[in-house]
Design a protein that fits this description.
Layout (H helix, E strand, L loop, with lengths): L2 H33 L2 H4 L15 E4 L2 E4 L16 H10 L14 H4 L4 H11 L22 H10 L13 H13 L3 H4 L42 H10 L10 H9 L6 H12 L9
Helix pairs in contact: 1-5, 3-5, 7-11, 9-11
């Protein structure tokens, strides 16, 4: 067999495998985009808003932040970002120029994600049509008008660190911890914050009286009276799938969007893993 023929045979064997691997990456990336809440936060709150093109307002005690365009448009989106640029943003809260992001972008939670998951998300985002939509400036008080405030906050409160399995816990518990703490970043809304906005990890998921958009975010620890201690594991899984509470009412407001775009898209196994992790937390009473 000639060298050319051998090369053709080799390529014919390798290319389908490469194509399958790429398809797998895109499929995983699509799942992770939903699990990570990217669509909810990066899509403007209007009926005709293009997905992931940014513009959603996040009202906080520190001002109003507008999410950026994360479609692969080269001018208004992230189309010029390399793999390392994207990983640096997600893991370390830094844009490609090295400037710090405000923690309205939940990089303090995303830092625990694996590099493989981050790159699968990027692969999926870059497979989508680019949308030309300029980012909107944040509406912030004067003392936060530059990235200096974000840099100082990051230096005080942020540590870049990947998630590691707890060998004393089950695989399901570890999967739930990864989803809740990092990919799903539940604590960014459901955990109260300290004076300068850092999450109070001593009260993980014990509710936040000053949540985004002025909402009071509920306690989801297993406390019998203030949290979800009266819910079964199946109740939690069914709520994350459908939004229906054990009493038959339905969740609305911002959690409604999270269920539509995020938790309802997860596998039942992942929702049960979340329930397993939540039920293992200390039961904490509300504390206003």
């Amino acid at each position: 067999m000639s060298a050319t023929a051998r090369a053709i045979v080799l390529l014919s064997a390798v290319l389908p495998l490469w194509a399958v691997a790429e398809d797998d990456s895109l499929s995983r990336g699509e799942y992770l985009v939903h699990a990570g809440g990217c669509i909810t936060c990066h899509t403007s709150d209007s009926d005709d808003a293009p997905p992931l093109a940014g513009g959603r307002a996040l009202v906080s005690p520190f001002g109003t932040f507008y999410s950026p365009n994360i479609t692969p448009h080269k001018e208004t989106g992230i189309g010029r970002w390399s793999d390392d640029d994207f990983v640096q943003a997600v893991h370390d809260g830094l844009n490609p120029d090295g400037a710090s992001y405000f923690p309205a972008f939940p990089y303090p939670s995303y830092t625990g994600m694996s590099r493989a998951d981050v790159l699968d998300i990027k692969a999926y985002l870059f497979s989508l049509p680019p949308v030309e939509q300029a980012n909107r400036d944040h509406d912030l008080p004067f003392y936060m008008s530059t990235r200096l405030a974000a840099k100082v906050w990051r230096s005080l409160y942020f540590e870049s660190q990947r998630f590691e399995n707890d060998s004393a816990q089950s695989a399901e518990w570890n999967r739930g911890a990864y989803l809740v703490r990092h990919l799903g970043h539940c604590g960014e809304c459901h955990t109260p914050r300290k004076a300068l906005g850092a999450v109070n990890n001593d009260r993980e998921l014990a509710g936040n009286p000053d949540g985004s958009d002025g909402e009071r975010i509920p306690n989801i620890t297993p406390h019998k009276d203030d949290g979800i201690g009266g819910w079964s594991r199946s109740d939690i899984e069914y709520f994350l799938d459908t939004g229906m509470l054990p009493d038959g009412d339905f969740s609305g407001s911002s959690m409604g969007a999270v269920i539509d775009d995020n938790t309802s898209k997860l596998t039942r196994e992942d929702r049960l893993a979340i329930a397993t992790y939540l039920q293992s937390l200390p039961a904490l009473a509300d504390q206003d």
